[in-house]
Each structure stands twice: as C-alpha cells, then as structure tokens.
Design a protein that fits this description.
Blueprint (H helix, E strand, L loop, with lengths): L3 E5 L20 E2 L2 E2 H10 L5 E6 L4 H6 L4 H9 L3 H7 L6 E6 L6 H6 L2 H4 L4 E4 L3 E3 L5 H12 L3 E6 L9 E9 L2 E9 L10 E9 L2 H8 L10 H8 L6 E4 L4 E3 L3 H12 L6 H13 L2
Parallel strand pairs: 1-4, 1-6, 4-5, 8-12
Antiparallel strand pairs: 2-3, 6-11, 7-13, 8-11, 9-10, 10-12
This protein binds 1-O-phosphono-alpha-D-glucopyranose.
C-alpha cells in the first residue's frame, strides 16, 4: 500500500518574478486556494495521509499554510463563521513533514532528500505546477497499475512537438489503451532529438530503488540532477510503465498556463461561474 507523497517545492519560481521574489510560487492562488493545496487535495483523495515537502529558501509560507492558525480560528469561531473555519481546517487529519533541500540542485536531488523517510515502500511524487482536473483521479489509475505491476509508473501526456523541449520525453511501446511500457526517456530534448511527443507529467509512483540511481547520478540537463536521468538508468533493472492521462491538465508553473488554470476553475466555481461567463462574453465582444 502506498502511504506517502513527496512534494518538491524548492523551485525558485523565476517565471513569476517579481511575484515570487519573497513568496513561494506554490502559494500563488487559483481563486481562493493556493496551487499547492490543489496538489494536497488530489493526493488525499486516494487515501494518502503522509506528505513530505522538499522545501528551500523563502518557502516558510507553505509550512504556515498547513499549520494550525489558532488566533484566526478563535476569531472565526467568535464571529460564527463555521464555513470559513472548515475551509482553513481541511488538513487536520493529515501529517506534514518538511525537509530543506540544501542547494537547488534539481528535481532528482530534491527526491533524494526524501530517502531517509521512505524506507521500503513505493511512494507518490507530485509536481504541483501540473494542476489536474479534480473530478478525475489520475493517481488512482496510476496506483492501480502499480498494484498490478509493482513497478514505477509515470504520468504521460501528448504535447505539441514544438513543446517537447519543456518536458521529459519517453519512447515506449503501447501495451493497452493509455498504458505504455517505457523503453527510453530523455530530459527536455531538442525537437529534432525527441523520440516521441509523449511528455512526462508531474505525477510519478516511484519505488525506493530510484534512490540508488539518484545517489550515483552526475548533473544532466541544465547542470541539475535530473529525475528523468535516474529513471532512465533504472530501466536496466526494472520495467517502468507510462500512463497517458485522460483528464485536463494545466501547467500553472508559467504565466499563460496559470491564467488558463484560473479560468478553468472560475468557469466551474458555483459562486462566480455565471458572473464570470457574462464578464468574459462582454470582454470578448469588445475586441
Ligand atoms: C520536471 C521534469 C520533467 C517533466 C516536468 C513535468 O521538469 O524534470 O521531466 O516533464 O517536470 O511538469 P520542470 O518542469 O520541473 O522543469
């Protein structure tokens, strides 16, 4: 059974400067919740209660967000604002651990920081920039594949060939609909070197064997320790499966993707969707 999720949140968020100069990009709001909360809610839906955040400098706001806010709670109780109280206490039955990545040496290095806390179990890795449609559980499908194969599973999505250099890209054999046996992978290839347009998306189920490869790894693309390189090396000892996601995914880690994420959720928010639709129509008719 998978009981732990690792959430690397040490990234600098340079695409959102100056907004991220002093506060984490994971705390940027999508309507009334920060990006990171969408990731935590997605994970808790599959019954995982233990969260390991790999943090860096200027990430204290994430710890505070998942901490009890006693003073605020008292005020809300006094004011009879039960609904708001529920909103800030969504995490009470969950456990959070925070580990500092000593230097920003890449995603692979961040995952390696979780090693002392993982022991022998498989675990989930969530990159919170990739926001999923909350009505569909990509993780549940991936856990089903893991239970069947006991091998690592990676989420995939077809992306336009012009965008392959933004992702880890795989070569693989389709075994079933939406289900691949991975044969090779390369981190952020040039378009001309990409073996396919199947991109790795920020949901992974990993087994502890990955740590042995991460420990030995030399810096790769961008001078960073790349998870994709460790997974590629791991292919020599275990099959790795790819699961092509069926739901909508937004990249909230860049400006336009972030805006699309907000619009997606705003159009589905019962409180504002009607007014928002009206507003959008008005705006579009003016141009
Ligand atoms: C990371 C991974 C990359 C993957 C991507 C998905 O890159 O290294 O393989 O395709 O996440 O979002 P990043 O976007 O953190 O640079």
């Amino acid at each position: 059974m998978i009981t732990k999720a690792v959430l690397p949140v040490a990234g600098l968020g340079t695409r959102f400067l100056p907004a991220t100069k002093a506060s984490p990009k994971e705390m940027l709001p999508i309507l009334d919740k920060p990006i990171i909360q969408y990731a935590v809610e997605e994970v808790q839906k599959v019954g995982i209660k233990d969260f390991i955040f790999i943090t860096g400098k200027h990430k204290r706001a994430i710890e505070d967000h998942f901490d009890k806010a006693t003073e605020l709670e008292e005020r809300l109780i006094k004011a009879g604002k039960q609904e708001l109280l529920k909103k800030i206490n969504f995490f009470e039955h969950l456990n959070f651990a925070f580990i500092r990545q000593k230097e920003p040496k890449g995603l692979g290095d961040a995952i390696l920081c979780a090693k002392p806390f993982i022991h022998e179990e498989a675990f989930v890795v969530i990159l919170s920039d990739d926001v999923m449609d909350p009505d569909y559980s990509v993780l549940k499908d991936m856990i089903d594949i893991y239970e069947e194969t006991k091998s690592p599973v990676i989420a995939l999505e077809e992306v336009p060939f012009d965008e392959v250099s933004r992702y880890g890209i795989i070569a693989g054999k389709k075994i079933r609909e939406d289900y691949y046996l991975i044969e090779d992978m390369i981190e952020k290839p040039e378009k001309s070197r990409a073996p396919s347009n199947l991109a790795i998306i920020g949901r992974y189920i990993l087994t502890p064997s990955i740590f042995r490869y991460l420990e030995k790894l030399q810096p790769g693309k961008g001078g960073e320790i790349q998870l994709t390189d460790a997974l590629r090396a791991l292919l020599s000892e275990t099959p790795i499966y790819g699961y092509k996601i069926k739901c909508q995914r937004y990249d909230a880690g860049e400006k336009f993707g972030y805006l699309k994420t907000i619009i997606y959720f705003a159009l589905r928010d019962p409180e504002i969707s009607d007014d928002f639709r009206k507003f959008l129509k008005e705006q579009l008719s003016c141009i």
